[in-house]
Amino acid sequence: MQKTTRFSLTGLAASIALAAFTTTAHAQEQWTMTSTWPENLDLIKIDQHWAELVNKLAGDEVQINFRAGGTLMPGSEVFDATETGSIEAAGDWPGYWAGVNPAFSPLATTTSLFNGVDYLNWIQQWGGRELYEEIYGQFNMMYLPYGITNNESGFMGRTPIASIADLEGKRLRLSGRDQGRVLEQLGGSQVTLAGGEVYQAIERGVIDAGEFSTPGVDFNAGFAEVADNWATPGWHQSASVFGVMINMDAWNALSEEAQEKLRIAADATMAWSLAWSEYESNAATQKFVDAGVTINQFSEEDLARIQEVTNQVIVQGACENPDHAKVYHSMITYLQEYATWRDVSVPFNMSRTMDNLPSLEEIEACL
Question: Is 39 marked as binding a ligand?
Answer without folding.
Answer: no
